[in-house]
Amino acid sequence: MQGVPEQFTDERDCASFRHLEQLPGVELYHAHISRYAFEPHTHEAFGIGAIELGAERFRYRGAQHVAPACSVITMNPDELHTGEAETADGWRYRMVYLDPDLLEEVTGTRHWWFSDVVRLDVARSGQLCQLVYGLWNTDDPLAQKGLLLDLIDTFRPFAHHTPKRPEAAHRFERVRDYLHDNYMHALTLDELANVASLSPWHFQRQFKAQYHVTPHQMLMAIRLWRAKAFLTHGMPAADVAAATGLVDQSHLTRAFTRRYGITPVRYQKQVVRR
Q1: CA 72: distance to chain centroid?
Q2: Run of H or E including 202
Q3: Partner of 70 for a Cys bridge, out of 18, 122, 168, 187, CB 3.0 to 4.6 A?
């Protein structure tokens, strides 16, 4: 499509996604990033992976983290994060994004949660990379399900039960739910503050203190996550822009690429089998 880049501006950066037809709720991803810096985004899924080479710096839950080679990454759903290279040659990594309902169905365990986002673990990081690679390179549904179970068993020792949330967080959870329910509309600060029963500027300060991003950043992250789902189901990119409350397809392309490192058109080509 004219005017839409199909790759990163730096030839050293590349990223690929894959969905498994027989395993809905699983998204595979591998990338090598040297110059690109990802804006705050979310996957609405458990993000599990490992750093193969180099090191990544990212912001998660209001703190800066560095993940060197042989690190295991364990991210909870609905947690916004960034990403950029910590080393001159960037970092290479593999990830799997697991829908919470699928994880519960496979394991029979509810309320998964990870307290630490980075752990240096040579053995498990290598196992995770091999298992993600195996899932990527087999079309056998039985083999895929076996590999998925092995993968979950590899990171399961790091998991805990969901911590009890403080009462003060509930009003902001209402706002977050409101954002999820109304992401397709043009929202105002006054409207969101009213949901939390706070004055607008006080609300924005408290919201950022709670989630470490502004309401607009969270809204955009939700819109782009929804865009991924629409693209996965084959919706044309121009229609996705309208469905997610973005101005037009150019706006969708810029926002999507800044958060996922790939254009929406290219993402759709990778994950939708025709």
Answers
A1: 16
A2: helix 200-211
A3: 122
Pick from 178, 187, 255, 249: which is nearest to 216 by CA?
187
Predicted structure pTM score: 0.80
Other C-beta atoms lying within 10 Å of the C-beta of residue 250 = 13
The distance in angstroms from the start CA to the end CA of the chain is 19
Interatomic CA distance for residues 175 and 172, integer angstroms:
5
Average pLDDT over residues 175-195: 94
Beta bridge partners of 160: 113
pLDDT band at 5 (very low <50, low <70, confident <90, very high): very low
Q: Tell me: the pLDDT tens digits for 48-74?
A: 999 999 999 999 998 999 999 999 999
Angle at alpha carbon of residue 51, lines to 23 and 5, rounded to 5°: 75
Cβ count near 222 (within 10 Å): 23
